[in-house]
Design a protein that fits this description.
With 150 residues, the chain is mainly alpha-helical. The chain contains 6 helices and 2 strands. The protein is globular.
Length: 150
C-alpha cells in the first residue's frame, strides 16, 4: 500500500527504542513497568474506524487487536495498530517503536518482539499475552515477507 499516511502515531519517531529504554530503566518492579506500559497505551491514538477492517483484525489474541500497514514511497513501512485492551495497546506501542519506519529488508532478520527482551519484559508476560504477541509478530513477519516479494 502506498496511499496517504493514516493511523499516525509517535512510535518509532518521537518514542523510539532509546526513549523506551530510558523510561523503563528506572522501573525496578513489575508494577512500575506495567504503569509505563499503560502510559504508552495512552500515547497510541485510537485507530480510525475505517482502518479497523477484517483484514487488519488479528486472531489469537484475547482482546481485539488490529494491525495494518502501508508501504511508503521511500520504501519504509508504516504500521498502525489498536486494541480494545489497555495493556495490549501498550504492548502494541512497544512493538510499533521497534518496527515503525523501517524497510522490509531491515525488519527481515529482526524479531518483532526483540524490544520486549531489550526492555526486560518478555519473561514477565502471562502465557495468554505472550500468545497474543506471537500472533502480532506473525502478522508483522507476514507483512515483511509480502513486502520483500513486491
Amino acid at each position: 500500500m502506498t496511499e496517504t499516511l493514516t493511523g499516525d502515531h509517535p512510535f518509532g519517531r518521537e518514542l523510539d527504542m532509546r526513549e523506551l529504554a530510558r523510561r523503563f530503566a528506572g522501573c525496578r518492579q513489575w508494577e512500575d513497568r506495567l504503569r509505563q506500559i499503560i502510559m504508552l497505551a495512552k500515547a497510541l491514538p485510537a485507530l480510525p474506524e475505517a482502518l479497523k477492517t477484517p483484514e487488519s483484525l488479528l486472531t489469537g489474541c484475547e482482546n481485539r487487536v488490529w494491525l495494518g500497514y502501508q508501504r511508503l514511497s521511500d520504501g519504509t513501512l508504516h504500521f498502525f495498530a489498536d486494541s480494545d485492551g489497555r495493556i495490549v495497546k501498550g504492548l502494541l506501542a512497544i512493538v510499533l517503536a521497534g518496527v515503525e519506519g523501517k524497510t522490509p529488508q531491515q525488519l527481515y532478520l529482526r524479531d518483532p518482539l526483540a524490544p520486549f527482551d531489550d526492555l526486560g519484559l518478555r519473561a514477565e508476560l502471562s502465557v495468554s499475552r505472550a500468545s497474543g504477541l506471537a500472533a502480532i509478530a506473525g502478522r508483522i513477519n507476514a507483512i515483511v515477507a509480502a513486502s520483500n516479494a513486491e
